[in-house]
Amino acid sequence: MRPTRVQETRSCSTTIAPGRFNAWGSFAAVYFPVTGINGQSLLGIQVFIQDLFYGGALIIAVALSSLVHRTERRERDIAKEAD
Fold first, then answer.
1. For residue 59, what pLDDT is reported?
2. pLDDT tens column, 31-47
3. Number of domains composing the chain
4. H helical segments located in the chain
5. Whose CA is closest to 25, among 11, 15, 36, 10?
6. Which is nearest to 19 in space by CA: 57, 61, 78?
7. pTM metric for this prediction
8. In this structure, are residues 40 and 49 in contact, taking their beta carbons and an 8 Å threshold?
9. Nearest to 66 by CA among 58, 54, 78
10. 69-73: long-range contacts (C-beta < 8 A, 24 or more apart)?
11. How many of the other CB atoms lie within 10 Å of CB of 2?
12. 8 Å CB contact between 40 and 53
């Protein structure tokens, strides 16, 4: 018996899957920037560099997410063409 769409969504909510909420992704999204900023504060780096760090982290996260999404879409399209 195939699970319903709701059951599939619930079972994926704690796995790392691009485009879906997951607890580990949320943890990483908070942990790494905060750790980087705290490290920079301990080193005495100026505040505007910390803002640049946040901006760079955001740009990298969006770029990686877009790359993964595009790759998955391309693989899905290739699989459809093969069928």
1. 92
2. 888 898 899 889 988 88
3. 1
4. 5-12, 23-43, 47-82
5. 15
6. 61
7. 0.59
8. yes
9. 58
10. 69/18, 69/19, 72/18
11. 6
12. yes
- Per-residue CA distances from 42 to 37, 39, 46, 58, 82 (Å): 9, 5, 11, 22, 55
* Structural domain for 53, as ranges: 5-12+21-82
Question: Residue 9 is encoded by which pair of tokens?
Answer: 């969504």
| Residues 19-78: tens digit of each pLDDT | 666 778 788 888 888 898 899 889 988 888 888 988 998 898 889 888 888 888 898 888
pLDDT for residue 12: 47
Residue-averaged pLDDT of the chain = 78
Chain center to CA of 55 = 15
